[in-house]
Amino acid sequence: MQSVNNNDRYVIALINGTKEKKLKWERDSQIDYVYPAYCIYNGDQKLVLVKYDTREYDIGGEEYLDYHCRITIIGANSTQLGVIIEDDLNDKGNLWRLYRLVERQVNKFDESIDGFIEGLNRFEQ
Fold it and tell me: Please, what's the largest Cα pairwise distance for the chain?
């Protein structure tokens, strides 16, 4: 079993903080990607979480899109201070877990689905 490296600890802490609603993510309108970028702030630093795709080719030469996530810390004057990509983690799926949790939080998915469930409960009564 691999030991947890610092990057894994950081991502797990972000997952837990998001689950516990201690972190308030927002959509980052300053970053122009195909997919929404999300961020949280700490003073003049910003942690940005993005999903992106790359064009890859299979063994037969067929092109396909491969999807990835990345965390970037941006400092004052938009200086990039560091990056965590999937290859930096023992459990590459943790970046995806974080992205999906953040996406749910920002889009208020749980509140929306709760509304549908409440509607079902009223209908069944």
Answer: 57
3-state secondary structure of 40: strand
Q: Are 65 and 79 in contact (CB under 8 A)?
A: no
Residue length of the chain:
125
> What whole-number distance in Å separates Cα of residue 43 and Cα of residue 120?
43
Burial of 64 (0-12, 13-18, 19+ CB in 10 A): exposed
SS3 letters for 16-27?
Answer: HHHHCCCCCCEE
> Judging by DSSP bridges, how do beta strands 38-42 and 63-74 pair with one another?
unpaired
HSE toward the beta carbon, residue 2, CA cutoff 13 A: 9
Cβ-based neighbours of 17, under 8 Å, separated by 6 or more? 23
User: Chunked in runs of 10, what are the mean pLDDT values of the chain (125 residues)?
Assistant: 74 96 91 84 94 90 91 92 94 94 90 76 65
E-strand spans in the chain? 26-27, 38-42, 45-57, 63-74, 80-85
